[in-house]
Structure to design on (646 residues):
């Protein structure tokens, strides 16, 4: 069996593993903090060490003869797939880093580079909640909001490899300011930090909730996960924040349903931690807003490959491009 | 030279003509009012007569030996391309009309059926302002707002042939009610009737404008074209309505730019009558809102094949499917 190393480079963690080319196994899956403060050299060193560890573990399982054909890397964008360069990555503090070639030279095997959210969606299409589904749209909701589109079994990249920026969809033209400079972006309402911020604002405004005591009164420590946890134990205010989040995400996903008429929309990332508390009102909002014939053929589901979708997808992207 | 009959069926007019298979000529282009009140049989009869007229004119030009390989029909949707049935067309008052087979049998040649907005975009891709551009996104702004997407030289249809419903994108979650039942759809702000409605509302509220006198005081007669005409002769209020329209369309198009990262976005339909008065602030709004690397590679242009894009596109869709 041939293997591909899949690497998922995020602002917080790097995850890597050796993926069997038929997707049936993943060997040596491991994660390390990214520690962006070490600069590109430090981060690339850690990627090489994680990838090397996976190859070593694979060697142990294959009597010392691992057949590793290449490495697929998923990284924050915008990036250039043709040159393998990460153009700008605010989360990493990077600009014009030739990541693909650095990884390829470091490991001595061919490498490919694609956007991290694209990889997550492709991973779910290959081995997860979107297996074989076409067309498939995925939205990743975590620190930021991104997305990917699979059409005819291939990622759709657009003219400059930046298709799928679902987080910067305007859902309210005069709404909240987004870090990107625009007003009313979906990300300004429904990303993890935005969920936490909305929750904290309400507490400051006097809403009754147990959220404050859950962080020992330190409102800065409220995260989206705190909100989901509070909602699950019955905190009415936290449940309201989750429902509101479902409304914002629902408006954004309804737009994607109208635009792509996909067979399935996958919601991935930290927000899936809110479970049916989120998905039930989210589906209702999409049904209320989107075009009926498009809603009728579209399922909305959470991703399955929690923490691994990007690794699977980066490996799959390599196989599609160079395998 | 082989020819394909292209038919563009709209709620107001039917346009048809014989298109050379290399797109170099169009013969017997003609138009007739749809007159939906005659029912599907009456409308189909008129389509057959227009198509027959084009074939006859072609016969005249080819010494009585026209080589017509088929007929492509563009019609309002949702429709089913596989069965050739128009499922629901509120503008026509139709439900489950087997349009493709009726046309095919009536003319005795093969036929194809596709969505009218899809055809308009494909026509511009084939012979107009989007010639050879990939990926290409087009938005049609007239009585309604629709759209189409060309990827790798083919229309993208989605899972149930209803992709590209750009008019029902939510751009303001608590905004104006749309005829579709949703709130804050782009169509509720920027379609022709919505532009006229916004203008009339302002006049009722007391804004000073020459629009009223242009329709002899009958505000119901204000159309989007009246607004464009007034703006062109310097009416400040009408110019404000056009700028506002540019803002709404700009928000919607910025979303499409973020989502598709297209090489070009074409704006088609009646709204292009507003000219640079519209396009200049529209481009500014997209630049302000959309993701920079996507904006940098994307031109925003009006369609070129005014009144003929749908005919060219319907013929092209036939050639791609059955030619």
């Amino acid at each position: 069996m041939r293997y591909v190393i899949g690497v998922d480079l995020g602002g917080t963690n790097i995850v890597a593993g050796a993926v069997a080319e038929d997707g049936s196994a993943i060997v040596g899956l491991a994660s390390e903090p990214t520690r962006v403060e070490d600069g590109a050299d430090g981060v690339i060193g850690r990627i090489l060490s994680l990838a090397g560890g996976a190859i070593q573990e694979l060697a142990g399982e294959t009597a010392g003869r691992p057949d590793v054909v290449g490495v697929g890397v998923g990284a924050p964008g915008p990036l250039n797939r043709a040159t393998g360069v990460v153009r700008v990555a605010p989360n990493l503090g990077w600009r014009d880093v030739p990541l693909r070639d650095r990884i390829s030279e470091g490991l001595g095997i061919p490498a490919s580079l694609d956007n991290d959210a694209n990889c997550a969606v492709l991973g779910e299409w290959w081995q997860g909640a979107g297996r074989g589904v076409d067309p498939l749209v995925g939205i990743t909701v975590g620190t930021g909001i991104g997305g990917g589109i699979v059409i005819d079994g291939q990622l759709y990249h657009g003219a400059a490899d930046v298709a799928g920026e679902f987080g910067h969809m305007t859902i309210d033209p005069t709404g909240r300011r987004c870090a990107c400079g625009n007003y009313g972006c979906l990300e300004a309402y429904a990303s993890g930090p935005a969920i936490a911020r909305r929750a904290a604002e309400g507490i400051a405004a006097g809403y009754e909730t147990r959220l404050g005591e859950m962080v020992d009164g330190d409102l800065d420590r409220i995260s989206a996960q705190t909100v989901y946890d509070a909602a699950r134990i019955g905190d009415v205010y936290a449940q309201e924040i989750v429902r509101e989040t479902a409304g914002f995400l629902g408006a954004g996903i309804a737009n994607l349903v109208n635009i792509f008429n996909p067979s399935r929309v996958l919601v991935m990332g930290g927000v899936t931690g809110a479970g049916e508390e989120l998905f039930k009102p989210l589906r209702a909002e999409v049904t209320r807003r989107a075009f009926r014939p498009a809603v009728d053929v579209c399922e909305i589901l959470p991703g399955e490959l929690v923490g691994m979708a990007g690794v699977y997808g980066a490996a799959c992207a390599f196989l599609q491009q160079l395998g």
User: Anything to note?
Assistant: The radius of gyration of chain A is 20 Å. The first helix of chain A runs from residue 39 to 61.
